[in-house]
Amino acid sequence: MSDVLAVAEHRRGELRDVSFELVTAGAELAGDGNLHLAIIGGDVDAFAEELSLDGVDTIHTVAEGDEFNHDVYVQAVAALYEELAPTYVLMGNTVNGLDYAPAVAESLDIPLVTDAIGLENDGGLVVTREMYASKVESTVEVDADNAAVTIRSAEWEPTEAAGEPAIEAFDFELDESRVRSRVTGFEEVGGGDVDITDADVLVSVGRGIEEEENLELVQNLADALGATLSSSRPIVDNGWLPKDRQVGQSGKVVTPKFYIAVGISGAVQHVAGMKGAENIVAINTDPDAPIFDIADYGIVGDLFDVVPELIEQFE
Ligand code: FAD
């Protein structure tokens, strides 16, 4: 039996999906033990209400600041750990998580395992991770009583069922002298306020599109479907779309209802970012393209013939 402390994540007033996935992973790992969920910063009361989910025993709110802050999170998680003495601490393997999780582990003097895709607690913690761009799966047996782990987004189903956890404001005194940075504002980079991780339908374009001016064709398909345009990395490397449209290992992890891959081969680094889509449709001239191995629907054909036909049908 192990108690688990999971740390929720939010940005600009909204909980991130990984918070709901952390509840699932945390409840699994805790088994008969307690799952504590920490909410640090932002509208903690509203977040606590939203995160009153099945499997959570206690929510601990820390009303410090509006947004993520490295020093506040490290101090708050360390203080919660001292107070609650959980066996394991779970955080998201996200930009924020990777920012503060190592500092948490260091300050608590416990090991950190990052990017977990599976967790087992059988008299000790066993973590499954992928290595070498998802080509190899490794099993890490943690040789310590306590550990911190970051979990990969979209590997656990989000918990949706309501629960009745206790909600407690954590009595926490921030050491201001150790807060060395503050978020003063946000500026969107590139693609405006499009967040491909929120889209239900993504039309994703790859190198098969050949020229920048041909992107309009794929954009028209996205418009006909009310979908959002995303891409593989070469499109971003060419400067044809902003970085925040890139799906994959060095881009974003997406889990839309429909993912339509147009002229994308299905390299492991791309698949790492979209394999969690509910339905995958692939359009590719090469019947042996690896994308067809994971596609639910495949169209072997030239995108310059297939896409105009699809637009006409959808319109
Ligand atoms: P290609 O592999 O060149 O595939 C183009 C496809 O289009 C081919 O299958 C071809 O048959 C098809 N095609 C050509 N013409 C047509 C046509 N007329 N009609 C229909 N189909 C056609 N990649 C990512 O996408 N995201 C990442 O985050 C990412 N991170 C990486 C990180 C590292 C460390 C490394 C080393 C690589 C990374 N990559 C990433 C790159 C990745 O390895 C691939 O090079 C990339 O995904 C290939 O993109 P693509 O499928 O668009 O291009």
UniProtKB/TrEMBL annotation:
This is Electron transfer flavoprotein subunit alpha/FixB family protein. Belongs to the ETF alpha-subunit/FixB family. It comes from the Archaea. GO terms for molecular function: electron transfer activity; flavin adenine dinucleotide binding. InterPro entries: DHS-like_NAD/FAD-binding_dom (IPR029035), ETF_a/b_N (IPR014730), ETF_a/FixB (IPR001308), ETF_alpha_N (IPR033947), ETF_asu_C (IPR014731), Rossmann-like_a/b/a_fold (IPR014729). Gene3D superfamilies: HUPs, TPP-binding domain. Transmembrane segments: none annotated. PANTHER family: ELECTRON TRANSFER FLAVOPROTEIN ALPHA (PTHR43153), ELECTRON TRANSFER FLAVOPROTEIN SUBUNIT ALPHA, MITOCHONDRIAL (PTHR43153:SF1). Residues 4-183 form the Electron transfer flavoprotein alpha/beta-subunit N-terminal domain. The keyword Flavoprotein applies. Keywords: FAD, Flavoprotein. GO terms for biological process: fatty acid beta-oxidation using acyl-CoA dehydrogenase. CDD domains: ETF_alpha. It comes from Haloferax marinum.
